[in-house]
Design a protein that fits this description.
Radius of gyration: 15 Å
Distance between the termini: 36 Å
Mean pLDDT: 81
Largest sheet: 4 strands, antiparallel
Structural class: alpha+beta
Strand order of the largest sheet: 1-2-4-3
Low-confidence stretches: 1-29
Order of helices and strands: HHEEHHHEEH
Length: 162
């Protein structure tokens, strides 16, 4: 397991200079903490984080997580969709291991989301190069937790909210 993490981290670090040339330079992909998070994300999600794009958008009743490949890659698109289906199932059970594994820390909002799992719906929708998970609740405490969760993800992944 440790050797796999090392291999993923080494690949992500090696790809960082190329990725920085291909992406918006304001995202500064070169720092080691970001590269390590990207490597963990690649391991957990099964797709290259530098050629995939996240959107974490708050909505009045919760929010949405979009993940799409930025390149034509049918295998990568299939993996993104599989990952999002896994997320819907795990989050629906109140399990937030994947965000913890990617970020190597407790992720804000997940404790409330886990304890109120029966008050949240998670729906996966297909998008051209991946998909999105729409998170909905009528409970204001849950919606606030979802917003905290999405804001943290947005900062960490340096992703837009639309």
């Amino acid at each position: 397991m440790h050797s796999m993490c090392f291999i993923f981290a080494a690949c992500a670090l090696a790809a960082a200079p190329l990725a920085a040339q291909q992406h918006d330079p304001s995202h500064s992909h070169g720092d080691s903490a970001y590269a390590a998070m990207q490597a963990r994300g690649a391991h957990v999600m099964g797709v290259d984080q530098y050629t995939s794009g996240h959107v974490f958008e708050p909505l009045p009743t919760g929010g949405r997580i979009e993940l799409q490949r930025q390149v034509d890659d049918s295998a990568g698109v299939a993996q993104v969709r599989h990952h999002l289906q896994d997320i819907v199932a795990a989050f629906g059970r109140g399990e937030f291991n994947a965000p913890f594994e990617v970020h190597a820390t407790d992720v804000p909002g997940t404790k409330v989301m886990a304890s109120h799992r029966d008050a949240i719906s998670y729906v996966m929708r297909l998008l051209p190069r991946g998909g999105e998970v729409v998170i909905s609740s009528r409970d204001p405490e849950v919606v606030a937790a979802v917003h905290d969760f999405l804001a943290f993800q947005r900062r960490e992944h340096r992703a837009p909210a639309h």
